[in-house]
Specification:
With 469 residues, this protein is of the alpha+beta class. It is built from 13 helices and 28 strands. Strands 14, 15, 17, 19, 20, 22 and 26 form a 7-stranded mixed β-sheet that branches. Strands 16-24-23-18-21 form a 5-stranded mixed β-sheet. A 4-stranded mixed β-sheet has the order 2-1-5-9. A hairpin with a 2-residue loop joins strand 19 and strand 20. Bound molecules: copper (II) ion.
Amino acid sequence: MNKRVSMLFTIAAVAVMGATLFGSTYTQTQIGAQSLDINKMDVDVIEQIHQMGGLQLVMPQAFAETDCGALADTGRNVVEFNLTGESVELPIMGGKTYNAMTFSGQVPGPTLRVTQGDVVQMTLTIPADEVTGHGNDMHASQMTALAFDSVNPGETSQYCYIAESAGVFKYHCSGVHLIGMDQHVFSGMYGIAIVDPANGYKKLMVEKTSGSGELDRVFYDADALEFQLQFNQLYLNEDGNYDAGAMFQHHNTATVVNGIQFGYVPNMAHNLLIKGDPATNMFVAQPWNGLELENMQSQLMYVENDQHVRLFIENHGNEPVFFHIVGEILDRVTQGNRTQSAATETWLLGGSQNMIVDLVFDEPGAYALVNHDYAAIYTGALGLFVAGDPFNLNPVFVGAGVIPEPVVSYAYVLGNPSDAVPPMGLNSIAHPAINIHGLYSDSVVSELKADGLIPLWEVIPVVAEMILG
Ligand SMILES: [Cu+2]
């Protein structure tokens, strides 16, 4: 073949490939001339995409579909991950609700935890009375969402994959044949898979200087107390429905961590314990305050001093997350199974990006985790870790007979919030107690209660009575 023919052949191949990838109805002219003009957002954007032929035409049919039967016969550990797609009404700040779409009645969806090399068998069931179909795309797999496609109401579908890479990975609804994916994700259909490294986690090294300024290195065992933090936004109209126009303009209604704005700040029990009065707020933002809020009453996250703490963090949203803990240094940042940084103040996560932060809280205190973007902080990306006993509550608890002797973390008395606690994996330290906190449907709350998690809204009045006498 001479050079000229060869070049023509290449151009033809590119043209064919372009037509395959982009579809004949989705042209550059349309992109430039009429599509997605955010100044004319009175039209339904999703309908517009649909009319252009749908996003399905632009997705390449790449990656291998994986056979569950074949993988089950390989001798690998098979982990079942069962999800249901359910639309439910859930609370938002200001005493209102929004029309949420969920995996299994909770936002975020259940966390999957496996070990590198395991086979994941994901089954998605859509109840017959659900208003729409749903899909699933797990970033821990390496296959296109189209290979799984979507599941209609009243049906069940399954796929399998090998979790080959260690790390934190987002999963999310992929809409109905990819249509409405943004609506379903921002309405609540997202979660994470944690894939533990096959050989477990690494020891944590923290540099210290002695009194004379001499450099020392302290090593912490790989075992750690673990939390999960998932960042996202809500884009809602006045009726509590998804607002695509607001999404395109990046005008979010709320910034959420594990589905809730300001979910990890003090509540009335902390006011009582620390201020002596449940009605006197001890913190600048306490929007979830009151026993009647039950699992939505805000909670704090408690750790010991000098304890190895591991945070699994994912950004599901449309905005960057500048992750920072006020008063702390992030001792190690890991992405995948590779260390990215150590002893750093802030680490940036783009959309659909994750990290594992390992750190030690040296001194007793309350430490605010934030997305260090002020707009995000003021709209909800703010929560508190409390390390040790900074409020000198041990004498109060022991004196009232709540606990027999002093504790190294308030988690032993009040527990840690269930939505911030991932399932146990390699190198996990068990939380002393876990309370029921999170954006849950009523049936999820009942299940957690049956599993023995603490309904703090029932316990707090008893503890208060013991302390007040
Ligand atoms: Cu969906």
